[in-house]
Amino acid sequence: MMAVAGWRIWCCPSTPRRNLALTYFGMQLTLNFLWSPVFFNLHRIQLALGIIVSLAITILLFMLTSWKLDRNAALLFIPYFLWVSFASGLNYTIGTMNPSVLLREPELPTAYASLVKETLDEQGFPGAEAWSATPPVNFDRDWQGHSPDPQRSTEVQLLWNAQTLFVRFAARYREITVFADAREDGWRDQLWDRDVVETFLQPDVSDPLKYKELEISPNGFWIDLAISHGEKEELYSKLQRRVRLDEPSKTWVAELAIPLSSLTKSFDRSLTWRVNFFRVEGKEEPRFYSAWSPTHTPQPNFHVPSCFGFLIFR
Questions:
Q1: Domain end among 41, 70, 102
Q2: For 284-314, what is each residue's pLDDT tens digit?
Q3: 38 neighbors 51 (Cβ within 8 angstroms)
Q4: Does the N-terminal or the C-terminal CB of the chain have fewer CB atoms within 10 Å?
């Protein structure tokens, strides 16, 4: 019905009113396209509400402008206008039922990566002195920000130099569950089906649906992925890693050395990245899904870029 209406107006004699109607037609198509990814992928409920209300207004303007050109074209938009009005009401209601979603952005946390000036060790990692000088972030709550479990707390620290981003996880655990097999270099698909710590990095914030995912397990297996609009592929980051398991204290420590060239084409320390850290532990569901910046989804889901915190290089 939208296509037929647009075609009927297109076939009308060229006049300022006909051109204005076609402009409104193009505007409503654009707003129609924008609403779904903003609402469903980014979970930006307030922004989505503004888009869909604008869409309803643009549809109405098309109908009013088309009325004197082709009444049938205008009438074909009535079901569309009614549906978008109903969806606007749903959007508003969902927003009022989820105030944490509306207020989330000002509450997003910030992590800091400190410049490491000391000489790296023989394995290419910073020494203990460098790590002690950078501030950690800690989390032990689930992906919704509830149910703290101090015996599964996670500490994360970050360092950087001109070539590399270093990430260090120190994780307390109840029990360890890992895969027994991996690729020759330790890369393991579906690594998140066992115990892992995870880093999601978004150097380029211009496209909120593109980011990097890097994970490591207590036995040193790892995975690196480039995520783009829900699709994933191997990142080929050439990261280095090392893991230390301390059974008496029930902790494991993982360090990652990630080449900056695999994360961004041109590293600019003055830019603020988006970042989130996650933890998964447990043999079977319900497993422990923990997030530094909670994603607030009904079911465990770490792929919510709008909830990523901020990463500042200093």
A1: 102
A2: 999 999 999 999 999 999 999 999 999 999 9
A3: yes
A4: C
Give yes or no for a contact between 175 and 152, defined as CB atoms under 8 angstroms apart: no
Determine the structural domain holding residue 170 and report its residue range: 107-313
299 plus 168 within the same structural domain: yes
Provide the 8-state DSSP code for 13: -
Flag whether pLDDT at 42 surpasses 90.
Answer: no
- What are the CA-CA distances from residue 221 to residues 128, 179, 197 (Å)? 23, 8, 11
Indicate if 114 and 96 belong to the same structural domain.
no
Tell me: do 271 and 134 sit in the same domain. yes
Q: What is the pTM of this model?
A: 0.69
Outline where the chain has alpha helix (H).
2-10, 16-36, 45-66, 71-76, 78-97, 99-102, 128-132
82/118: higher pLDDT:
82
Q: How confident is the model at residue 142 (pLDDT cuts 50, 70, 90)?
A: very high
- pLDDT band of 103, cuts 50, 70, 90: very low
Strands 309-313 and 110-115: parallel
Torsion of CA 261, 225, 151, 100, to 10 degrees: 100
H or E segment to which residue 252 belongs: strand 251-259
Q: Are residues 268 and 192 in the same domain?
A: yes
Contacts of 75 (CB under 8 A, 6+ apart): none
Which CATH number belongs to the domain containing residue 164 in this structure?
2.60.40.1190
pLDDT of residue 300: 95
Domain boundary residue among 65, 86, 102? Answer: 102
Residues 6+ apart with CB under 8 A from 285: none
Same domain, 299 and 218: yes
- For residues 31 and 122, membership in a common domain is answered with no
Strands in 79-187 per DSSP E: 110-115, 137-139, 154-160, 164-172
What pLDDT was estimated at residue 64? 96
